[in-house]
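To the wet lab folks,

You asked to see what we're planning to order before we commit. Fair enough. Below is the target structure as tokens, and below that is the sequence we designed to fit it. If anything looks off to you, flag it before the synthesis order goes out.
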């Protein structure tokens, strides 16, 4: 990522999704620039990472990105911290579902590409009812 773009990477831009969808639901990636997130997505896909698997994205060795992002590597670390926060949230929700404390399952969607199974910038767009 060019250095001229570096200062713009953390500037909030309007995303395709809402910042807060309902109650506790928060888009963790609203403060990241769309171009940065798209670059991360394309890079991960280029490296063969299954961007549909949140665990794979959250545990990706970001050192492999250091050559590309150089001076902006702190931003990559912040992105990974957010991804791991979402992964922990998803694990908690699945645990609650397994223990039958919830009657709804979250529907995850990517804030960048809109795909339901891409985990580069995941947010919960809503919930689907499930039978317990």
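Sequence we intend to order:
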């Amino acid at each position: 990522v060019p250095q001229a773009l570096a200062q713009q990477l953390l500037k909030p831009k309007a995303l395709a999704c809402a910042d807060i969808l309902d109650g506790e639901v928060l888009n963790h990636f609203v403060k990241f620039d769309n171009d940065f997130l798209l670059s991360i997505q394309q890079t991960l896909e280029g490296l063969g990472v299954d961007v549909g698997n949140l665990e794979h994205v959250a545990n990706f060795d970001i050192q492999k990105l250091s050559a590309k992002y150089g001076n902006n590597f702190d931003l990559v670390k912040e992105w990974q911290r957010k991804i791991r926060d979402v992964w922990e949230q998803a694990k908690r929700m699945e645990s609650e579902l397994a223990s039958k404390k919830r009657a709804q399952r979250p529907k995850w969607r990517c804030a960048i590409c809109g795909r339901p199974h891409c985990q580069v910038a995941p947010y919960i767009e809503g919930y689907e009812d499930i039978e317990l």
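Structural context that might help your review: The CA atoms of residues 78 and 97 lie 29 Å apart. Residues 73-98 form the longest helix (26 residues).

Thanks,
Computational group
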